[in-house]
Amino acid sequence: MTMHKDNGMAPDPAQLAVLYGQLAEISRTMLAAAQRGDWDAVTASESACAGLVGQLRRCPIETCPPAERETCMHLIREILANDAATRNIAEPWMRELEQILRPRRHAFGVQMYR
Q: Which residue, among 76, 78, 81, 85, has the nearest Cα to 57 in the 3D structure?
């Protein structure tokens, strides 16, 4: 997996399919990591996604050459499906983590400080 930093410049529209392909690969990596419960790898993949998403936001899909647009749309659908599957795995874990981290109030503690 190649990590990309967002350099602040808009990508060449002809390269959009390449960038979406890289993002799709990262989304597959994230899903596989979530399926095995490797949340550190999910987090690392999220960082890699952020740079690519930043680049893609500066170059709308409409600027993509027509021949590559269908490829880009297919990749976007795959990315969205992988993201949804990753979230479905992560959400129960996040709720469990929230319960663990939430401060607990004990009846004896309330009485103690009155």
A: 76
CATH 1.10.10.10 fits 13-112, yes or no: no
So where are the chain's domains? Answer: 13-112
- Positions in the chain short of pLDDT 70: 1-10, 104-114
CB 19, CB 61: distance < 8 Å: no
pLDDT at residue number 97: 76
28's enclosing H/E stretch is helix 16-35
* pLDDT value of position 3: 41
> Tokens 């952020």, residue?
50
pLDDT score of 31: 97
Q: Please tell me the distance from the alpha carbon of residue 31 to that of residue 81, in angstroms, as a whole number.
A: 10
42: enclosing H helix or E strand = helix 39-57
